[in-house]
Amino acid sequence: MAGARSDLKASLLKHRRTTFERVEKFISQDYFVDCNLRGRLFGDRCALASLSYFKTSKRIPYSEAIGEEFSPIKVGDSFGQTWHTCWFKVELSIPKKWTGKEVHLLWESDGEGMVWRDAQPVQSLTREGEKTSYMLTDSLKETDPHGLTLYLEVACNGLFGAGKGSMIAPPDLDKTFSLNRAELVIYNRDVRELLVDFEILLDMAKLLGEENQRSFQALYVANQMVNLCDVDNPATFPAVHELARSVFCQKNGESQHIIHAMGHCHIDTAWLWPYEETVRKCARSWVTVIRLMEKNPDFTFVCSQAQQFEWVKAYYPGLYATIQEFAKRGRFIPVGGTWVEMDGNLPSGESMVRQFLQGQRFFQQEFGKLCLEFWLPDTFGYSAQLPQIMRGCGICRFLTQKLSWNLVNTFPHNTFSWEGIDGSRVLAHFPPADSYGLSGRVEEMLRTVKNNKDKGRVNHSVALFGFGDGGGGPTQKMLDRLLRMKDTDGLPRVQMSVPDRFFSALEEEKAQLCTWVGELFLELHNGTYTTHGQIKKGNRECERLLHDVEILSSLALVQKSSFQYPSVQLQHLWRLLLLNQFHDVLPGSCIQLVVEDAMRYYSEIRSSGAQLLKDATRSLCGELLANRDKSSDTILVINTLPWERTEVISRTGPQGSETLALVTVPSMGFCVLQESLPPPHPVTVSKEADGSVTLANGIIQACLDPLGRIVSLSLLHPEREAVPEGCQANQFVMFDDVPLYWDAWDVMDYHLETRKPIAHLLKPLEISIPGGLRGSVTFSLQLSKSSVLTQEVILDAASPYISFRTQVDWNEAHKFLKVEFPAKVRSPNATYEIQFGHLQRPTHWNTSWDWAQFEVWSHKWADLSEHGFGVALLNDCKYGCSVHGNVMSLSLLRAPKSPDATADIGRHQFTYAVMPHLDSFQDAEVIRQAYNLNFPLHGTEGSPLGPGPVWSAFSVLSPAIVLETVKQAEDRPDALVIRLYESHGSTVDTWLQMGFPVHEAVVCDLLERPDPNISLVLEEHRLKLSFRPFQILSILLVLKGQSRA
Q1: DSSP calls for 507-548
Q2: Please, which of 356, 400, 548, 732 could form a disulfide with 393 given CB 3.0 to 4.6 Å?
Q3: Which of 378, 469, 746, 796 is catalytic?
Q4: Glycoside hydrolase family 38 central domain: which residues (predicted)?
Q5: Segment 942-970, tens digit of pLDDT
């Protein structure tokens, strides 16, 4: 096939295609391997001395595995079962005649493998990750041991789980795994080097195009290399390699684009595999990175997610110590600053702060430095408050690429300034190759340059290479490819780099950059706002619980310095919650095993959190509770929100019966009440002959038809109707929900064409509470043959909203349930709550950018207002919603079948509310009412000695300011950290009132580092504060009389 004449004559190249295919066949792994170069990659072969295995359904440590009883197995046999682990004992005897040779163990099997040598993990062996050989020695010496024993730990799942028939299908639990190859070989590294040379030259010839002189030069040289190379005579190889170098050594011009290459291994903390398997994915991937670093001194690798580092530290301490050493050398680089790569839409503002607080503190403690860049390559949209949160956590740089997945509009930038709703800016970069898992190919580097949308503004971009999502990471071949493209004429300049060097280069050119203001909305995966409603409910409830535990524990600490603030327990619970906010868990785009893990973690948070809440309450109000009389009607009511609240609460009477009481509770404090307040206007409930029911409380009045739909909803003073004539609010509608591919992720615009109103009444409207402090009616609807909805519609005295306590027994496939509220309001925009603020989105579809937002997300409320009047929709655990025209919709339940065939099947309970209001939503206190719905008052029976005490720990004079968080400072047990934000979108000067003495008040950032440049006016029991629109402000309050011990 090839000749090696030293008197090589001029090329007889006549035809580009035949020459190109000639070179292709010379390195093909499918054609002519008996005589081509690829067929010489391996030399002599040798069978293993012995091979045995054992199977376990558990993920057990090495020390336990090697003590098990192993049974013989041979190549061609099947092993395992999905999610099991097979341990292989590999006994080797290397032939003495192989002295001086590079010797590898070749291993090809299904599953993900880890090689253990001398009781340490040393390398992964995973066919999907192009890692099928382990180097035993690079040059066998006579004195080296020729016999040794290795162990292979093989997880019975692939890089992308074990989907049945497709990647995102539910796991195939009957899948078997096969061993296809296991032998010793001599590895001819000079052949491998030539194969990479040929590959790069072929790619240059193909991709630079026939109009490019370098394309022909690369092809001509590759053809000459084939002529010169005698595959049976390795002595010809150096000259062939020199021919390739003659191309690679021709340098670029100074103006050529610079690509900053960084090793990368995106590992989903859970997705198509459970959390436990991710621990091993991290070890397999990272130990292989370490091996590459030992052989490639310029190789750098970036790695995010503190949770994954913590797992490796706990389960693989030797590997972790090595990682720390390479981190000190600036080669294994922690990035991101968060506990996990969380969802960018659904976590609360405080949860996002805690992602950074826990992540940055971990990286500071373990690696001696904070991360300077937020690294979130694969999540489903990015909140407009992230720039401010980043900056508050010491980060002013941001990298992602997910917006390249937009279904409708192409995002116009790769490098830009991103401005949040408060005006904070960060430098953002989207790698132009539109991937975080490149292979280091010529095509990818050329695509990086071609796709760069900011040509002329910046001349730098990032290329992240390495197998990702399921782990794997970079390979030696990727590094070899990139080395040949370091400075080769015709290609962009590719340099191994680090994030700081890259972003510093961008910062020198940032004056040229454009600015994007507001959210980065992903025009895809908007089904994730609704999928797996139980996960989303667990998230909202646990966020609320930890909020309340921290506040009551802080107030207990203020009252009694002897109180032991549960900082260790709270950190554990927060980390569990943050873990479940990973971008394939909270969105619901994971397999059933992950859902079970997530629900178990929520259960632990609920159980432990409830106990911590009791402990704090007992300390805070211990004397009151100690004197309680079981026959007493008195009740201790605690309010964890920073404003006074007058609400109806439910309490258990002396004989166990449930009674209602109207109470007024001070801001962030408590009171003891002996009897209910009289309602300013009792609730009335009246039923008409046609089965309709009217509820009224002096503030609002609602008329429901027999199907439970609101045909009239009006404010009473002054009278103003909220439902258009002829329309029905609280209308349940079902849609067909069959996306193009990403089942749990996507809801497509065409689902709106399949709208089917629900009108099958199962149980008619009945009065369940006749009025007074509360009025309510119940009814049931048959949603389908197999799904039923039961709802209690509730109106409380003194309440500005009517609430809908809903239970659904849901047994559907590819259906989408929503509830609609047409409003007698006209506005081109609706307002949606996001983290620490709100934003507006259009109610029309004028442009493709508008239309792409047919399904959006919000947190506790959405509002549609015109001048002087509006309607707000509140909820306690839902996120998906939309407002089109004048119809407000809340997305309730989906029924995807991949990757979890059981998603959302079962019973769901949730509450939403509708609130008509005068004036703007700010002046109508919509924000406060949404908080009230989500943070119920806490009631505990008690009996005071004397008059009932009333105490308020905090209150803010301005209604625009929300005191979101009160907690013990991380590093100062004698101090609290409080976090407030401006919620209206206004500039505010106000006072914070405190019900306890404070020694000092200091502004700090979100990592609780004091800011010496800002001074506060602290007077006795009050603190003057100033805010710009949507500003988040954290303050360190040093308590009087507290010790720093």
Answers
A1: HTTGGG--EEES-B--SS-GGGGTSSHHHHHHHHHHHHHHHH
A2: 356
A3: 378
A4: 523-602
A5: 554 445 689 999 999 999 999 999 999 99
